[in-house]
Specification:
The complex is a heterodimer of chains A (276) and B (155). Chain A has 276 residues and is of the alpha+beta class. Chain A contains twelve helices and 14 strands. Chain B is globular, with a radius of gyration of 15 Å. Classes of the chains: A alpha+beta (276), B alpha+beta (155).
């Protein structure tokens, strides 16, 4: 591992200045991806900027806009937060699918999306909930829908000098159940081979799939069949998911397996939340 | 560039102030600076849990944390569980139930188990599986580990 310096940020402006004026600088929150990535040579950091002590990033609140989750809030804190459990349990499920209990004591949802893995477990639930990413920099703040935040494998919408301040789960919350189904090589502590989130919104459904394209994707073909064409045969609807994905073969599984398992998980998800 | 920093923290109940390099992991710091070698290094990518310690009461993977992040925190390692030469009841339960073979994962298992019992006095099998989801035992003593934790919770 290369050597690097460490700065503990004391306020947000200091963080923006450092981000703008320093090469090879990485924000450190949970560090669970960053430390592994540095050891493996994925990140060549010369400076780590510890942001998890900043009060602005520790916000976890519910108000008239929805649920705001600060960038330094851990996955276990989100999973246990009553407004999340009551209103958007699919997000608790997604957060709970990441790593192990002890990893989730450090890991953050902002880190999960900033790492921009197509397999990020929190991404598909966030897609189904129309989540908004609040980005802050010295030039001010801007808000990006989660589906525009993911650009490609390991690439997100942040510009130099910016960081994710928080994620908003906007109101109104979905009317109906949601589920996150994950296929992985082992029962726990593994990245998703495929992750499927299915969320009911009244009589409509929203479906997002991870680990099957360069970014998490929506299953628009399946959604159209169910929402607009009134398809009630869930296996028929699930078959359409192959039009929405472009998986590759990698260390976790083959392209063919991904096509197969997506169809199965989309069907199961539909059965579970729309009724058999 | 790597630099040296002073960190102030509490380890196993004692206040400490030490110098550390900015790129040193907490795991290495615990073993090679504090000489508390009960904490083990395994995969060093946060998957095996051998390096589990309690930071402000929560089980974490010390291989994925920097020693500089320890500043202002309360650290408990396996050495901190015994009081006046008397083992913690979870340690005794592991011995009574032979909840190990080679013993390499045991310190991490016990720290994760201790944290579970601190927040949940009567854990179910499911609670135990969840709490220890980040701790691997390649000898396969899982059944005995679960029994030890349940026995300890009843005391």
């Amino acid at each position: 591992m290369l050597s690097y310096d460490y700065v503990k940020c004391t306020d947000l402006n200091q963080a923006f200045e450092l981000l703008e004026g320093t090469d090879h600088i990485y924000p450190l929150a949970g560090g669970t991806d960053l430390m592994v990535g540095m050891r493996g040579g994925k990140f060549a950091a010369k400076m780590l900027m510890d942001i998890k002590g900043l009060p602005e990033l520790k916000v976890l609140k519910e108000d008239e806009n929805g649920i705001t989750i600060g960038a330094a809030v851990t996955l276990n804190e989100i999973t246990l937060y009553p407004p999340v459990r009551e209103n958007v349990p699919i997000l608790a499920e997604g957060c709970h699918s990441v790593g192990s209990y002890s990893i989730r004591n450090r890991a953050t949802i902002a880190g999960n999306i900033c790492n921009a893995s197509p397999a990020a477990d929190t991404a598909a639930p966030l897609y189904c909930l129309n989540a908004l990413v609040n980005i802050a920099g010295s030039g001010g703040t801007r808000t990006v829908p989660i589906e525009e935040f993911f650009i490609g494998p390991g690439k997100n919408a942040l510009q130099k000098g910016e960081l994710v301040q928080s994620i908003l789960i906007p109101k109104p919350y979905p009317d109906g159940k949601g589920t996150y189904c994950k296929a992985s090589r082992t029962g726990s502590v593994d990245l998703a081979s495929v992750g499927v989130a299915v969320q009911r919104w009244g009589d409509q459904v929203k479906i997002a799939i991870g680990a099957v394209a360069a970014t998490p994707v929506r299953a628009f073909s399946v959604e159209k069949a169910v929402n607009e064409n009134g398809e009630k045969d869930w296996s028929k609807a699930a078959k359409l998911s192959c039009d929405d994905i472009s998986p590759i073969t990698d260390i976790r599984c083959s392209r063919e397996y991904r096509y197969h398992v997506v169809e199965v998980l989309v069907r199961r998800g539909l059965e579970q939340i729309m009724g058999v | 560039m790597t630099e040296k920093r002073t960190v102030n923290f509490v380890v196993n109940g004692d206040k400490e102030s030490r110098e550390t390099e900015t790129d040193q992991t907490l795991l290495k710091f615990i073993r090679e600076e504090l000489y508390l070698t009960g904490t083990k290094g395994g995969c060093e990518i946060g998957e095996c849990g051998a390096c589990t310690v309690l930071l402000d009461g929560k089980p974490v993977n010390s291989c994925l944390i920097l020693a500089v992040e320890l500043d202002g925190k309360d650290l408990v390692t396996i050495e901190g569980l015994s009081k006046n030469g008397e083992m913690d009841r979870i340690q005794k339960a592991f011995i009574d139930h032979a909840a190990f073979q080679c013993g390499y994962c045991t310190p991490g298992m016990i720290m994760a188990a201790r944290a579970l019992l601190d927040r949940n006095h009567s854990p179910t099998d499911e609670d135990i599986n969840e709490a220890l989801s980040g701790n691997l035992c390649r000898c396969g003593a899982y059944q005995e580990i679960r029994e030890a934790i349940k026995a300890s919770s009843k005391q």
